Amino acid sequence: CLYSSFIKSKSFAAILQEHPCNFTLLNQEGYEVSLYDFIGVPILLDMSTEWCGYCNIAAKDLLLIKEEYKHYDLEVITILFENGKGEKPTLEDLKGWAAKHGVKYDHILSGDKEMLNPENDKNWPVAGFPTFYMIDEKMTIQEIMAGYNPSILRSMIESVLLDNEVKDSAK
Fold it and tell me: How many angstroms separate the CA atoms of 28 and 166, rounded?
């Protein structure tokens, strides 16, 4: 889906304004969640692992971010690709992540590493963990950030949310 544009340019910029590949994964309660279930609302997609230090720091901030931007109906979705042993996360791992970080939203998903495989036509480019995708309500990738910096992440979110607010008020 996204990788061919990414690999040609070696830049995340090549996939901005593209529609992301859909996925259907299990959440911490064992229910299937698909990305395209959220068409119509902005999404902050967090791609993380349990063993990643910065992913753990970001997880605590994502609760605050979800609360800060609730009036925009911002959905926060975390995909964990590996547990602390480097294996695919189980439901128990997902529940443990939620409990450890006080997560109250329902979208902590067990990722499939095949999503990151450049040979897969439905892959997601990730330069490291965490990687954040900001997707607008029209399901278009607007911003991408590899790594974690809380002020840059908030600026990224605000640029998309405020841009959409300006577009809506101009109608």
Answer: 36
115-123: long-range contacts, CB 8 A cutoff, minimum separation 24: 115/21, 115/23, 115/79, 115/81, 116/81, 118/3, 118/7, 120/3, 121/1, 121/3, 122/1, 122/21, 122/22, 122/23, 123/1, 123/2, 123/3, 123/21
Which residue, 105, 84, 104, 103, is CA-closest to 93? 84
pTM (predicted TM-score): 0.89
**How high is the pLDDT of residue 168?**
58
> 138 vs 166, which has greater pLDDT?
138
**Chain center to CA of 97:** 16
